[in-house]
Specification:
This protein is mainly alpha-helical and about 100 residues long. It contains three helices and no strands. The protein has one domain: Orthogonal Bundle (Helix Hairpins). The termini are far apart.
């Protein structure tokens, strides 16, 4: 039994769709950040899978994935710092409470 491209793309598609659903429906900033990370991980899986199936001897997809993971780590650190500052100002991390920060 040969493992085809669909065995990798279907879980990646499910992960991405769960991330989009969580991003659009959640009101908690931490849950939104987790959903965004889920979408980025699905994209990283696609980079690796397409690299493996289209160019099996090359490593460009792997390097793109490592670069995307580094960018995601920096984005997560910055987002958590912003969430901590919002929590200090508003005393909550609900997205609906951010209207209190308007001048």
């Amino acid at each position: 039994m040969e493992i085809t491209l669909l065995y990798y793309l279907i879980p990646s598609l499910i992960m991405f769709c769960c991330g989009v659903y969580g991003f659009l429906t959640r009101k908690n900033m931490i849950a939104i950040l987790i959903s965004l990370e889920l979408m980025l991980n699905a994209v990283d899986i696609n980079f690796v899978v397409f690299n493996r199936f289209l160019f099996p001897g090359q490593m460009e997809g792997m390097f793109f994935t490592l670069f995307a993971i580094a960018i995601a780590a920096a984005e997560t650190a910055l987002a958590i710092a912003i969430i901590i500052n919002v929590f200090r100002a508003v005393k909550g991390i609900d997205v609906r409470d951010l209207t209190k920060m308007k001048f």
